[in-house]
């Protein structure tokens, strides 16, 4: 799978040859630091002085590298696909090899950073249910009014919570049909591709 870069990202990465192939390591370190700790203007200023380029150029290149590395890690792009993706930028072979080495050296760390940034959603722990049927009341002697009560136990970071839901059987059947339809849709090739790219 190839990574498609927009015109803006190509422009950001287009500043990279001005900094030189030797600067890829320094700028790549800044890109990983940007992911890890956020923006660091002083580090960009120091890198700009060291490389004899403008601060804006360094910031644009770091943003471009950050995008290139994060998207490549999200999609788990192989070495060949990464090389093909950056080949369209028209860089020299030395610069392409430096970018590939930067990607290979940092992809595990970037994936772990991206995993930490992902929201932690509650997960299923257990479910209790009860069927209540009202057969009669003072005003109506013969009525059947069923209700299903569900107690859903969730786990979020070892913190257990419970949600109580009550519904009638027809709504519950509709909910079951919708969930089964969603599960069936998850087996399509399109959804599998999306899920694979999200990991």
Secondary structural class: alpha+beta
The tally of beta strands, per DSSP, is: 3
Instruction: Sum up the overall morphology in one term.
Output: elongated
Ends distance: 15 Å
User: What order do the SSEs take from the amino end to the carboxyl end, as H and E?
Assistant: HHHHHHHEEEHH
In round numbers, the mean pLDDT is 85
How is this structure best described in words?
The protein is built from 9 helices and 3 strands, in the order αααααααβββαα. The chain has helices at residues 7-14, 16-19, 24-37, 41-51, 55-74, 79-87, 93-117, 169-185, 189-198; strands at residues 123-134, 145-156, 159-167. The chain has a 3-stranded antiparallel beta sheet with strand order 1-2-3. The mean pLDDT is 85.
Task: Write a brief structural summary.
The chain is of the alpha+beta class and 199 residues long. It has nine helices and three strands. The mean pLDDT is 85.
């Amino acid at each position: 799978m190839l990574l498609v870069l927009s015109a803006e990202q190509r422009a950001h990465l287009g500043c990279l040859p001005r900094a030189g192939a030797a600067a890829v390591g320094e700028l790549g370190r800044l890109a990983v630091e940007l992911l890890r700790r956020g923006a660091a203007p002083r580090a960009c200023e120091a890198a700009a002085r060291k490389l004899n380029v403008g601060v804006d150029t360094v910031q644009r290149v770091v943003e471009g590298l950050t995008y290139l590395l994060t998207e490549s890690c999200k999609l788990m792009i192989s070495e060949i696909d990464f090389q093909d993706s950056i080949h369209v930028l028209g860089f020299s072979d030395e610069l392409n090899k430096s970018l590939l080495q930067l990607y290979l050296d940092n992809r595990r760390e970037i994936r772990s950073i991206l995993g930490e940034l992902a929201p932690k959603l509650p997960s299923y722990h257990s479910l209790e249910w009860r069927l209540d049927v009202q057969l009669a009341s003072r005003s109506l002697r013969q009525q059947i009014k069923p209700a299903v009560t569900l107690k859903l136990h969730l786990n979020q970071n070892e913190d257990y919570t419970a949600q109580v839901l009550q519904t009638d059987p027809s709504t519950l059947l509709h909910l079951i049909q919708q969930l089964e339809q969603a599960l069936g849709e998850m087996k399509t090739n399109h959804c599998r591709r999306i899920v694979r790219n999200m990991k």
